[in-house]
Amino acid sequence: MTAKRIVLLVTSLVVAALGTFFALARWDTASRVASVASALAGVAAVGVAVWAALPAVGGRGHAVRTGSATAVGRDSHANSGVIDAGNSGSVANRTGNAQAENGGQANTGVDRRP
């Protein structure tokens, strides 16, 4: 089972449990629990958003089973893999064809640019 499916399953179970609790509890008790649950969910959402944004700031790229790319003309570039300017260990597997014509540049793997 993938991590995404596990997260979806756990989230569904928590929502079902809270829904059942709110339906059976007294109004003032349900209101207190809902307030605490909302506060915790808000803090968790901000934490997850920050965590999700961090790998994009210099994480390694990964390209698998990409399509083809064609560069036609001088100063044109085609890439069906990964451009890794920071040399961060990017990986490209089973990438598509990259073709250059008339002075263009093409890459089908990991293009390590300075």
What does this protein look like?
With 114 residues, the protein is α/β, with parallel strands linked by helices. It has 2 domains: 3-57; 62-111, no CATH class. The protein has helices at 3-24, 27-53; strands at 62-64, 69-72, 77-79, 82-83, 91-93, 98-101, 105-107, 110-111. The strands form 4 sheets. A two-stranded parallel sheet has the order 1-5. The longest helix is centred in the middle third of the chain and has 27 residues, at 27-53. The chain is elongated and about 75 Å long. It starts with a helix and ends with a strand. The mean pLDDT is 81.
Keywords for this structure?
114 residues, alpha/beta, two-stranded parallel ribbon
Q: How would you describe the shape?
A: elongated
Q: Uncertain segments of ≥5 residues (pLDDT<50)?
A: none
Percent of residues in β-strands: 15-25%
Lateral strand order in the biggest sheet: 1-5
Number of strands: 8
Helix-and-strand structural type: alpha/beta
| Mean pLDDT rating | 81
- Number of helical regions: 2
The Rg value, from CA coordinates, equals 24 Å
Provide the number of structural domains. 2
State the helical fraction. 40-55%
Biggest sheet descriptor: 2 strands, parallel
Q: Write down the secondary-structure element order.
A: HHEEEEEEEE
- Measure the end-to-end span: 39 Å
